[in-house]
Specification:
Blueprint: H1 2-11, E1 16-23, E2 29-35, H2 42-49, E3 54-56, H3 59-66, E4 86-91, E5 99-102, E6 111-114, H4 115-126, E7 131-133, H5 138-141
Parallel strand pairs: 2-4, 4-7
Antiparallel strand pairs: 1-2, 1-3, 5-6
Amino acid sequence: MEACSEIDAFFGFPICKNLFLCNQQKTVFYLLLMPGDKPFKTKYLSKELGIARLSFAGEDAMESLLNLTPGSVTAMGLIFDKEQKVRLLIDRALLNAPMFGCHPCINTATLQMKTEDLLNVFLPATGHAPTFVDLLPPEENA
């Protein structure tokens, strides 16, 4: 993600950090979109979602649910999740940027997309409704 900060500056829009997560039982899956420069603390997100423990989901689940390979995780993979088994989480901090960058299901390219197009065009077309989260310690959210 350090290299992405240079790309952010060059293109003038943030590149998202995309994490594929699951609950401890590996029965509920989450795709988290967050700013690339923001640290991820599992405990804060777990608490906000009311889940005992989140962890990174396995490669097999990523491939079967989103048709993606490690390093290529992106919201664009939701087009393959016809049964909506993956819950989309978006850090509210991304809503401040009019544009963002993401992979087009392969990590050798980056797409620039309007944030409003993701929310109002792409996601409705996939049937996924985002859950907005704050990835900060509780005292910083107050």
